[in-house]
Specification:
With 389 residues, the chain is α/β, with parallel strands linked by helices. 37% of the residues lie in helices and 13% in strands. Strands 1-2-3-4-5-6-7-8 form an eight-stranded parallel beta barrel. A two-stranded antiparallel ribbon has the order 9-10. About 10% of the residues have low confidence.
C-alpha cells in the first residue's frame, strides 16, 4: 500500500510542477506534558472560593503535541529543511523535491527558517522569498504534513549574521540597552506578523514546531554559551516567548534544541534549559562532523540522557537537526544512523537542506540513494503518506 500511494503522490507532484527566569524544571512523569504550557504561562493561582473554571479546549499547539505523541508510538518521522525550494540539480520548481524524486513521497516534517524577517527583507538568509515560504508551509500543512520553523536572526548590535560572535554583549544589550531593546522589539513584531499569516484558507492557524535559539551550548551564534550567561539566555528566551504568546500565537509548540554534546548530565543540561512550563519538545542538533566512532558515541550518550530526562519530565524529543555533509558513505543511513535511532522513541529526525555544494539528503543519483530507499521502506520510518489520516 505504501508503495502504491507513493507512486501516486509522485505522479501528482510532477503534474503540479509542470503547471506552476526559568521555572523549576522537574515535573512528575505522570502529568501530561500538554497541560504544562499555554500562552498564559504564568496565570494566577485559582482561588478555592471562586467558582470552578470550565475546562479549556486544547490549543492548536496542544493538539499538535497530541498528534506527535500518537505518531511516536508508530515510529519516527523523517524531516528535511527547505525541501521544496531547491535540490542538488534544480531550484524553485513547484512541487519538486529531492526526497519525493528518490522515494516517491514527501518528508513528513518540513523545516523553514525566518532569518532575515527581522530586517524586513523580502527573502530569508538562504535567498528564499518569504512569500514562497508562507505558500509552502500552507501547502505542506494541507498535505497533512508537520511544520518546524527556526530563526537565525542577524546580530542586532554589529549588523552581522547570526554567526557574528565578535561582540559578547549582544544579549546583555538586548535586555538592558534602550536602543537595542527597541530594535529587538521591532524584530519580534516582524516575526509575529509573519507567523500570524500562517493560516489555512478558512482562517485556521497552522500548528508550528517553533525552535528559536538553537545550539545555544555552542559558541558560534551570538546567543551561544560563551556569548551570554545562563541567566541572560533564559531572559532572552522568555522575552521572545512571552511576546509571541501575548500576541495570541497559541499554535506554537516550543522546542529547545542544544547541539550534540556527548557528556550531558542533569546539572549541565538544566543550566540553560528554559523550564518545563516553557518547553514542550526537546531536541538535539546532531551532525557527524568527525569520525563515525565519535559520532556514534556522542549521539548514543546524548540520546540516553534525553530519553531518561524526557521520561522523568513528561516530554517528547527529536533529532531536530542531523546529517552527514554530502553523505560520502553509501550505507550511512541504515548502517550508522538508523541502528542508533531504533533504540529510542524519538519523534522525528530532521536533515538539513540540499544546497548544491553542501547537502544532507540524497537525490536519485546521489551516492547513498539506494541505502536511503532502504531506510524509507523500514516499517518504523514515517514519511508524509505514513502520517496522513
Amino acid at each position: 500500500m505504501k508503495k502504491i500511494l507513493t507512486i501516486a503522490l509522485f505522479a501528482l507532484a510532477l503534474t503540479t510542477a509542470t503547471s506552476a527566569a526559568p521555572s523549576t524544571p522537574a515535573v512528575p512523569a505522570s502529568v501530561s506534558p500538554m497541560l504544562q504550557h499555554r500562552c498564559s504561562l504564568h496565570s494566577p493561582l485559582h482561588s478555592p472560593l471562586a467558582p470552578p473554571k470550565k475546562p479549556q479546549p486544547p490549543t492548536i499547539a496542544e493538539l499538535l503535541l497530541q498528534r506527535l505523541q500518537s505518531l511516536q508510538q508508530r515510529g519516527y518521522m523523517f524531516g528535511h529543511q527547505d525541501d521544496t525550494f531547491y535540490g542538488l540539480k534544480w531550484e524553485w520548481d513547484a512541487g519538486k523535491s529531492d526526497i519525493l524524486a528518490t522515494v516517491g513521497d514527501y518528508p513528513a516534517v518540513m523545516g523553514f527558517d525566518l532569518g532575515g524577517i527581522e530586517m524586513g527583507d523580502a527573502k530569508n538568509l538562504d535567498s528564499v522569498p518569504f512569500t514562497r515560504i508562507r505558500e509552502e508551509i500552507i501547502r505542506h500543512h494541507q498535505r497533512g504534513g508537520i511544520i518546524t520553523i527556526s530563526w537565525h536572526p542577524r546580530n542586532p548590535v554589529t549588523g552581522g549574521t547570526a554567526w557574528d560572535v565578535s561582540d559578547n554583549t549582544v544579549v546583555q544589550k538586548i535586555l538592558n540597552d534602550p536602543a537595542s531593546k527597541e530594535k529587538f522589539a521591532l524584530w519580534m513584531q516582524r516575526v509575529a506578523s509573519f507567523l500570524k499569516k500562517l493560516k489555512t484558507p478558512d482562517g485556521q492557524r497552522i500548528p508550528i514546531i517553533f525552535r528559536p535559539w538553537h545550539e545555544n551550548n555552542g559558541s558560534w551564534f551570538w546567543w551561544g554559551q560563551k556569548l551570554c550567561s545562563d541567566e541572560e539566555f533564559h531572559a532572552l528566551w522568555n522575552t521572545l516567548q512571552d511576546y509571541l504568546c501575548a500576541q495570541g500565537l497559541d499554535n506554537l509548540l516550543w522546542s529547545y534544541s542544544p547541539n550534540l554534546d556527548g557528556g550531558w548530565n542533569e546539572q549541565r543540561f538544566l543550566a540553560r534549559y528554559p523550564g518545563n512550563d516553557r518547553v514542550q519538545l526537546l531536541g538535539e542538533d546532531a551532525y557527524q562532523w568527525g569520525t563515525e566512532q565519535d559520532f556514534i558515541k556522542a549521539l548514543t550518550a546524548d540520546l540516553d540522557f534525553l530519553d531518561a530526562f524526557c521520561k522523568k519530565n513528561g516530554k517528547i524529543y527529536a533529532m531536530t537537526e542531523c546529517g552527514y555533509k554530502n553523505i560520502p558513505d553509501p550505507t550511512w543511513w541504515t548502517r550508522v544512523l538508523k541502528p542508533i535511532m531504533d533504540r529510542y522513541p524519538i519523534s522525528y529526525f530532521h536533515t538539513w537542506r540540499n544546497y548544491k555544494k553542501e547537502f544532507f539528503a540524497p537525490d536519485p543519483d546521489q551516492y547513498s540513494a539506494e541505502d536511503f530507499k532502504a531506510l524509507f521502506r523500514a516499517p518504523n520510518t514515517l514519511f508524509l503518506l505514513d502520517i496522513v489520516e
